[in-house]
Structure formats: structure tokens, C-alpha cells
């Protein structure tokens, strides 16, 4: 529902089997998922506190059933290709003609300068175009490629027409394989579920792939009439080559798509005989990559995306372990005390290597190793009470929750490779970097919720929660947030008894406030210093950030009104209006350069998101043997700043100002190209 924050993440909170999940979503095998649901309204998300500011994704994994053990096997395979084709490109002939026109117009403009000026400019372009492009793929002299009329020489023939398709050289048809097996069953007192999965996918970019092995075991046991316990453990091992196209490298030379869009269609991938155009081979009979710097800078001179993608390495090896355990104590009928414990660990080991022949690693070669261990331990204690008094039904919850997160990082890199075909750090001479650091954060929460309904017709709910975070100074650490909700089942009223075509009609609304701290560092309120600014052997440090002890929770206050309906046993849907106000925005406020700092994190400003959501589902055919359903989901969104600390804040290609949205572009207007 829009953009809840300027600096904070817009990611939702994931809850797996009722407990907050701190791991990575791709460590969960989709075949282990029984159901997923989305919580967006204020009443349902407020209970989950600060991490639910952008909604909640509820995931329930499969469990066994009280039946004889059953085994299921699933196998699937497919192909991986690009769904949207690449842009149409100019061929070598048209490319030369367009470049000739650009050079000519740089000397004289037709219709502006004299005919003689234009003629001189034509001659200049024809004679000097090879100096601009630095490559002649034709069988004619350098100054004979494009005539004085701007057209390619009709006698010019390409020497190697099949070796200038850079896009084709880095793409391929990938293969995807997915195999899963699970076993489930149960007795009167216990149920069990176990699964094993294997996924292997080859990407459509060369040297890009992903493989994963997952395992899960889940058991629930009714130890006695008043005690129930359960254990859910999961593991995932994944690995993959990134093809030099990680999201952090989207604008770098080693991004395959960026490179192929910038290099002209006149430059060969491999070396050729300049007279005959034949390939040149090495001693082993392999074609040799054209690594000579014979391209201008605008065509990524000195780089070679095919060679770098094949020779370089960006490999991730990831291990994920997770465990969830609970025990329920039924103290009295309707009164249950639950203890939940969670453990999630994610280890990421990255191998990096830049070859010594071309690119960032040339001429010596370099290698890196990065290791990150992310461990989170969580506990919560819940006291649930449910009771019915005639037509009155009530449920109440009292709970406490804590989460400890620790991240250990180790990274190092060396350069000057000694022996070929060995990217271990011991095979390099010079240490470029060697660092380690540990990050930690702690969250603590207390919360309560109460639900009431009368005959299932009139529904009321309320919750209150206090969150504490180590990200804030101890004087500002805690925030209190709450919600209220109400609903009316109109279809259960007496005046609706004879309205047969209405199966369900419900009106509901809610208001709630949630804190948010996702957009700041673990030590946002402190003044931090960077190490490593040493002068020879004398240690040196540099102040990196200013302290901001006044920093406090960003607040998201939202309300929504909705109508849920089901008509004619065929049509069901929801129409909902929402308004989400974000205040006390966590914002990186720009500072003047004279301070020595780019910005400081503060609470400034506010903005809102609002809109209408529509969900419709219609059963076209509905019988015992066949169902055919058609659904539509539509939504609107309006985002606008309502308060800022200054008139305008320019950040990159955007400008923030009151009355504008977070994604209003601040760019020059262009008249376009004179045809």
C-alpha cells in the first residue's frame, strides 16, 4: 500500500507458522507451503509491531494428518529463456551511416551552414570515421567505407559478419529441473511431515545458475490432555554463479546487458585476419578473444564481456538452518499458555575472482573471499483466553517477544596472481584488504489484543503494543502503538433472511498505528568512526557520522474501510479504501559540504499513501467435477509529501517537496532529436 518511508525498506514482514521469520525467503521450498495469506489492514498488522509497517505475509507449511503414512513425489523440468526480447539494433551498415551523419553534423549543419561547408563536412566524415570508431570490419580501405552521400559503399563486404552479435554470445537456452519428495501421516496423538527437494536452474545468461537442496521435518505431539508440543526444523544449501550481473553491479562494465547495449555492432568478439577475415586460433585450436584495446571509450574499450563473464567468478555458497519449537500448556479450559522459540542461521560464502588478462583484474589478477554469518534467536510467550457467554464470544491475548540478531562478517582480497587456474588467496601476492566486523541489534516487545463478537454479527477488536529497539538511544528506545477494528455481518441480520442472492455481506473498518525503524543502521543514534585511515604504521581514524540522540520511531498511522460480499453463489469480492499516513519520517537530511558530512539521520516530515483496492472473483463453471474461476485485482495509489524540513530536497534524479510524490523526477526537459 504505497511507500511507507523515504529511507526505510518497503519489504513486508514474513511470518512462518505463526512465528516471525528472519531468514531468506528463497530458503523455503515452495512445495512445503500449505497456504499463504496477506495482512494489510491496520487491525491485523498492528499486532506484529514495527516490522509489519509494510504488511505481513503469513506462510503456513504443510503438516501431517491423522491417517496412514503417505509418500508423494513430484518432478518437473522446463526451459529458461528471456520473455521480453532485446531492443532492435542497427546492423553494421546502418551503424556506420548514423555515425557518419553524427560526425558530419558536428562539422556543419545542413540547412544552416553553406553548401560548401556541408560538402567539406561530408568529406571530413568519410575520411575520419575510422578514427572515431577505430575498427574496419569491411574489405575496403578506411576512407572508402562511407561515401560522400552518407551511404555505405556498395562494394563494402563484411569480413566476419557472424562474429559481431554480442547479445547472442552471452545468452543461451537454460534448463530448469525441480524434484521433490515428501512423507506425511499421523496418529491420534501425533502428526509428522518430512520433505526433501532439489532444484537446479541454468540461467539464460552464460555462467549464471542456481541450485538448491532443501529439507524439512515437522512434528506435533499431544503429550497429554493439557500439553502439546511441536518441532519444525529446516535446512537449505544453495549455490550459484552470478554471471557478473549482481544487482550491485547494474551500472558496471561487467553487467552483460549494459555492455551489449553500449558496444557497437562493428566490433568482433574474436581475433581475425585483417585481410581475409578468418579466425585466428591458438596452439590448441581455440579461437582467441579480441582483447586489444581497439574500441573507443564509449564502446567499453579495454573490456570484453564474453571473456570476463567466462573467466571471472562471482560464486555464492549459502547454507541456511532454521528451527522452531513450541509447547502449549492448557491451564484451564479456554486458557492456554504458549512458549515459542526460533533459531535462524544463514551463512553466505562468496568467491570472487577477476582474471589477469582483461578488465578490473588486469594485468595481475585479483581474488576475494567474503563470509557473512547471520544468526537470529527469538522467543515469545503467549497467554490466550477464549470464552463464550451465550451469544457473546471473547478472545484475549497477552504476550512478550524478544529477538537478538548478530551478523559476523569477514572479507579479504589479494592481487598479483602467481599460478594460473588457481583463485585461492594463497596464490596471490599483495594484500589489498582484510577486514572483519560484527553487527548486533536487539528488539523487545510487549503486546495485548482482545476480540469480541455478538452472535457473529457485530465484531470488535483492539490491540496495544510497545516496542523497544537498540537502534535508538535509551531515552527514545520505546514506542507505543495500537489499533481498533470493527465489523458488521449484515447478511446475518433478520431483515436479510429472505434475500437469497446475498450469501455474505460484511462491512468492516480499522485504525492503527505501527512503528518503523527499518531504514536506519544498527547504531543510527551514535557518532561513528571509520578505521583504516592509517599513515604508514601510524593508525588513523575518520569520523563517519554525527550522533543523533533525538532519533525516534517513524510512525505509520492507517485506516481502512471495506465491504466484503458474496453473491449468487458465484461472485465474491472486496472493495476497500485505505489511507496511510507516515509521520516522523526517518530521513537522511543533507548537510552543507563545510560540515564534512553528506547527511545526518533525523525524523522530519510526513507523507501519505491512499487508494482504493478492488478484488473480484467469479465462478464461471462450478459443479462437482469442474471449477472455472475468473478473477480481477485492481488498485489505485496516490502518494504525496505533506511536510518536509525544507522547501525541497534534491536526491539524484528525484526532488522531494510538499505536494509532490516520492518518485517525482527532477530532470531536464529535452526537445528531442532533429530528424
Report on the structure:
The chain is mainly beta and 675 residues long. The chain contains six helices and 28 strands. It has helices at 42-45, 92-107, 115-133, 166-170, 256-262, 305-311; strands spanning 13-16, 19-20, 33-39, 56-61, 70-80, 174-186, 190-202, 209-222, 227-241, 313-332, 335-354, 366-389, 392-417, 428-454, 458-469, 478-489, 502-516, 529-531, 541-543, 554-567, 571-583, 586-590, 599-603, 606-622, 627-635, 638-643, 649-651, 654-656. It has an 18-stranded antiparallel β-sheet that branches. A hairpin with a 3-residue loop joins β20 (554-567) and β21 (571-583). The longest helix has 19 residues, at 115-133. The two termini are 43 Å apart. The model has no long low-confidence stretch (mean pLDDT 91).
Name a few traits of the molecule.
6 helices; globular; 675 residues; mainly beta; 18-stranded antiparallel beta sheet; 4-stranded mixed beta sheet
